[in-house]
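Submission sheet (multi-component)
Chains listed below:
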Amino acid sequence: MKNKITNYLIGALFLVSLGGLGLHFRIHNPEKHIFGYVPFFAGIISVLGVPLLFKFKKTVHLAYILNGFMAIIGIITMADFSIVKSPLLPDIFIVLGKFYLGRAIFCLEVFNLDSDPKPTGWNIIRYPNMGFWYTHLALLSAVYFLGNYFWR
Amino acid sequence: MNEFKFLKPLWWVLHIIMIPFMFWLGHFVGRF
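Outcome: structure written.
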């Protein structure tokens, strides 16, 4: 059953990523705007690369990291677009859903199903715990903001 | 986490790539 659940989750991740790629293609067509290539290539990696990497036990960590960082970059850039142009909250929710799908596949593959790990101290913000992602979201947002604000 | 070992040697490489990339992305998106 565990394998079946993993496969369903990988399928869901593929479909959510495909939906994201489709949405991006319509909103930022690479032929119309040069920056459309950023979500286009990120989308291609999300659709073809990440689900495939999640499929193999050896590359689960790589998939988890790629999936997490692409979700973080998506959240930061869409939050920026939301502030500057028009609100993109539904799209941010889609990318958050994609992140949690990746997290679910990772937990299924890496942790014992009956375990309930409770990290303490510095481990809270260390890989692969959720604190790692919150810290990286905050720090990468700060770096993004510096580039956005000071390098015009 | 033992499984993370394979990525440890890449720690510096990843940070050296990602920090300037995010800085550049902020600049790049800010132009539009």
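Remark: Chain A touches chain B at residues 33, 35, 38, 61-62, 65, 69, 73, 76-77, 80-81, 110, 126-128, 140, 143-149, 151-152 (CB under 8 Å).
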